Amino acid sequence: MIRVVVADDHPIVRAGIVALLQDADDVEVVGQASDGDGAVATVLAERPDVVLMDLRMPGCTGDAATARILAREPGIRVLILTTYESDDQILAAIEAGASGYLLKAAPESEILAGLRATARGETALAPSAAAALVRRTTARASVGPALSPRELEVLQLVAQGNSNPAIGRTLFVSETTVKTHLGHVFEKLGVNDRTRAVTRAMELGLLP
Questions:
Q1: What digits encode the pLDDT tens for the residues 11-68?
Q2: How far is the C-alpha of 73 from the C-alpha of 38, rounded, in Å?
Q3: Assuming Cys at both sites, which of 5, 99, 121, 153 could form a disulfide with 48, CB separation 3.0 to 4.6 Å?
Q4: How many CA atoms lie within 13 Å of 100's alpha carbon, on the beta-carbon side?
Q5: Can you tell me the distance from the alpha carbon of 201 to that of 140, in angstroms, rounded to the nearest whole number?
Q6: CA–CA separation, 99 vs 28, rounded Å?
Q7: Cα–Cα distance, 124 to 117 (Å, whole number)
Q8: Is 105 exposed, middle or buried (0-12, 13-18, 19+ CB in 10 A)?
Q9: 18 CB contacts (<8 Å, ≥6 apart)?
């Protein structure tokens, strides 16, 4: 039996998911939660095999709850089941440690198949989630290696709000050298100022 906790803040939606799972011979719903904090508490109490986790819930969000659960119980698998599919939301969930990302609009057979795949240790991704990961991987592969370790170090200090003289003192280099590194960063990222360099690097996954 696959032991499952369902976390969703909409009672009717949660009831529908539970009903779907209860119709499956190999699934047992061992707990329910209506918010992120409740999901963490229920999962730590019940130790399920899989958590079906919504993203937008009161208080602690689904991706934050996922990170908290996996920090305590890394063996538990989390499958995001949501109506939201923006790149940022998908990537935040996957980076938090979720094993999969499916949409509530998916056919019931697909949701059950994704749950079973997740329980087996596999990854279940909606097409939109897979596409988002491909876009992020491609961006990192094409742009990430172009910045040298020193250029990334300078950019990280810029992101922390340091001025060029302060960066020079931190790295024990001249202000002119800092400006040279930044010039290379601007050119490689295709930007013209410090703010856009930082935001572009974040978009590409070069900075947290």
A1: 999 999 999 999 999 999 999 999 999 999 999 999 999 999 999 898 898 999 999 9
A2: 16
A3: 5
A4: 28
A5: 10
A6: 19
A7: 7
A8: exposed
A9: 6, 29, 32
Q: What is the structure's pLDDT at 86?
A: 72
Q: Decide: helix, strand or coil at residue 152.
A: helix
Task: Give the C-alpha separation, 147 to 154, whole Å.
Answer: 10
- How many C-alpha atoms does 202 have within 13 Å on its Cβ side? 13
φ, ψ of residue 84 to 5 degrees: the values are -100, 140
Q: What count of Cα atoms within 13 Å lies in the side-chain half-sphere of residue 164?
A: 12
SS3 51: strand
Q: Count of CB atoms within 10 A of residue 120's CB?
A: 11
Distances (CA, A) of 148 to 127, 177, 181, 189, 204: 34, 14, 9, 12, 15
Q: How far is CA 104 from CA 19, 52, 60, 196, in A?
A: 14, 11, 20, 36
Q: Rounded CA gap, 29 and 203, in Å? A: 38
